[in-house]
Amino acid sequence: MKNVFEKLGIFILNNRPVIMAVVLLLVLLSLQGAQYIEMASGTETQVSKDSQLYKDYDHLFLNTFSTESVIVMVEGNDVKTEDVVKAADRLGQQALLVPGVTKVSSAASIMKQINYAESGRSKIPNSDREVRESIESYPEYFENLVLDETHTLIVIQIEGSSTSQQKEDIINNIEIALEEADFPPGYKLTVTGSPSLRLDIESEMGASMGVLLGIAGILMVVVLLLVFKHVRWGLLPLPVVLFGVLFTFGAMGYLGVPMTMVSMAAFPVLIGIGIDYSIQFHNRMEEEIHCGKTSSQALVSTVKNTAPAVLIALAMTALGFVSLFTSVVPMIQDFGKLLLIGVIMCYLSSLFFGLVTLYSFDWIARKNPCGLFRKKGDEEGKVGENGNNGPKRDLENSLCAGNIPTHEPGAIEKALKKVTGFTIRHSTVILVVAFLTCCAGLYADQSIPIQTDTNSFIPQDMPSLINYKNMQSIMSGSGDHLNVILKVDDASDPELLEWMDEFSQHEVANRGHVYSATSIVDLVKERNGGTIPETSEEIQAIYDEIPASEKGEYIEGGQLLHIDLDIGTAMADLEITGIEELRDIVLADIQWMQPPPGVTVTITGNSVVIIDMVAGLTTGRSMMTLLGVFLVLIGLLVVYRDIVKALSPIIPMLVVIGWSGLVMTAMDIAYNPMTAVMGALILGVGSEYSILMMERYFEERDAGLSPVDAIYQASSTTGTALIASGATTVFGFSALIASPFPMISSFGLVTVIDVLLAMIVTFVIFPPLIVLMDSHRGKKLDIFEKLQGLRKKRQAGLTNT
């Protein structure tokens, strides 16, 4: 493999201008491709389009019956006045002109309906006294709209299948209409409702993520200046990885990978991983130059020795991420796709753009009379197959040999050697303690709670959330819903409507979290004196009289009917597990109260989708992690065909997973949908550290060093770069802890913990582990060779006799 990469290094060296031109072209193409990225936040990001749940919710309910409500809350001294009602009427008329608005309900619309029924004229009362009399005469019609003396609502229903952009356009038009409605001075007007809240959440997350990534970049600059100061141009890895992220944006656009709320968190991950690649290349090339090699020789040697190791680490990281594809949640699968694309782009950026730029900087420094590391006789140019243009040097030798001057070890290198020495001297105690604590952590992980209250994932002090909660607090039984869809042969069957009425009353009377049940039956009874007609013909005649805007929520054609169960704030009160139990209770009630023959009942709705989405994100985390471990192990066996090299990086990562469970238990941190995938992520990210350390260890072993000397050399050279890359990753993710979104903040905290644990096991557990395993293998080989020797002697003796 190294011969292939040596040729690649020579190719890079001899084609530097072409490579930089290609990089520039890729930048332009990526900027174009990034414009094709779409933000996805619909049902297709939560459940698979092939699942029955998606078909029931998206096709059967969302596109047939669903509407969402933008609510305008009017607050003032007295909302039961002519001026307020007429302003609400003006707003309603303007809102109905907005594409996507299906219905507007307010005190004004109710009064117009009452007056039309009484006098044949659809009009608003002309005095405050008449307005108040109308409200007090028909309290049952106004109870959900005129909440008290100081609060009234205007409910603007929009199509449930509207996209995020369409909802944003609708809300913007409603806000313009609100200004033109001319409400009396002194009244507070608040636009709220679930569509408005979700749009504000998306906007807030995008804005806060941009700020946090900026903070992460600043922190990365600081840590590179502190930890990577032993090399020249120590800030170069940051722009290199940013190029890789830019290429990732372009690939996303061209490949049609959507941007979701989860995939936004992939970019800090990519920066943390990608900068490792750049730092490893940068550190090795500077090491080669310190050993007296020319820029050309250093570049070729770096590609030959480091590129294969980093590529293997990348492959194992990718295998860890592949386990994300087993998730039943599409946005987690897209998260995995994005990470795979990203690590490849960051590797290519580091290998080509990073090394060519570093070569150019060094070449300029050498040509400058005051440049660093300038040596007489150094001449840069194209090289042959041996990678030399001066006296021949062995490109496989990464150590400074003979009379070639070396740089003085830095403080980090000295510290790492001391740590390595301590771990080797106390290897037995360290490995036993690691094993026991790992087992304890894996056991403790099973009892870590899972945070399922979706309201806790967003900032509690966000104004739109405060408005939404305020609206819910003054509206009895408003909020979440369970949607019961009936597939029937005849929607006008009296027996069917009787069953729907009986079932609805039973749920409201016996299920504490079901506040109301509405269906087409309510509209039929309203037009038939409070009873259900006895014949299908009478029912069909009433159907024909009901305006399409009113019955559209409850009936579609003659085969689909909808019962809307209002479960209030159950999502916050009961959380996911409680909602799931409530759904199962309603299903049991349906089984007990059997509907008429030929009727198929399906329970769906946004609450049901969230139940399955959160379950898919959290319950499969252990299997996802185990699959990741298995894939990485198989990958290492395929690459190395050596059980020691395959197990050496895996065992430390198992320790990290176990320790992570202990730390989360001790800190009382619960899993959420983002942190639930951390097992697969840390396996992919952390295994890189052990693989790179192992590659350098066996490189030193091949050079003739003993196991102990090899691990000393590996930890003091490669370890320095790992400290820099690990510290950069930690600092980058530390910025996420400051996120106003608790879910992202928790994700950042858990990631920082796991990366720190990965660094600890790389320098504390890996050195004694690799020395023990390698030495044990050597002893077995010695015994085997001795047995072979004895066998040959015995055979020779038998031949002589």
TrEMBL record:
Q: What is its main location?
A: membrane
Keyword Amino-acid biosynthesis among record annotations: no
PROSITE patterns attached here? Answer: SSD (PS50156)
Q: Give the stretches traversing the membrane.
A: 205-228, 235-255, 261-279, 309-332, 338-359, 424-444, 623-640, 647-667, 673-692, 721-741, 747-772
Classify the protein's membrane topology as the record does: Multi-pass membrane protein
Any one Pfam family match given in the protein's UniProt record, by short name: MMPL
- What highest taxon heads this organism's lineage? Archaea
Q: Does the keyword Acetylation apply?
A: no
Note the InterPro entries from the entry: MMPL_dom (IPR004869), SecD/SecF_arch_bac (IPR022813), SSD (IPR000731)
Could you tell me which residue ranges the SSD domain spans? 656-772
Any Gene Ontology CC annotation: plasma membrane
Q: Where located?
A: Membrane
Keyword set, alphabetical order = Cell membrane, Membrane, Protein transport, Translocation, Transmembrane, Transmembrane helix, Transport
Q: Which GO terms describe its biological process?
A: protein transport
Q: Which PANTHER family match?
A: PROTEIN-EXPORT MEMBRANE PROTEIN SEC, SSD DOMAIN-CONTAINING PROTEIN
The molecule here is called MMPL family transporter
| Species the sequence originates in | Methanosarcina acetivorans
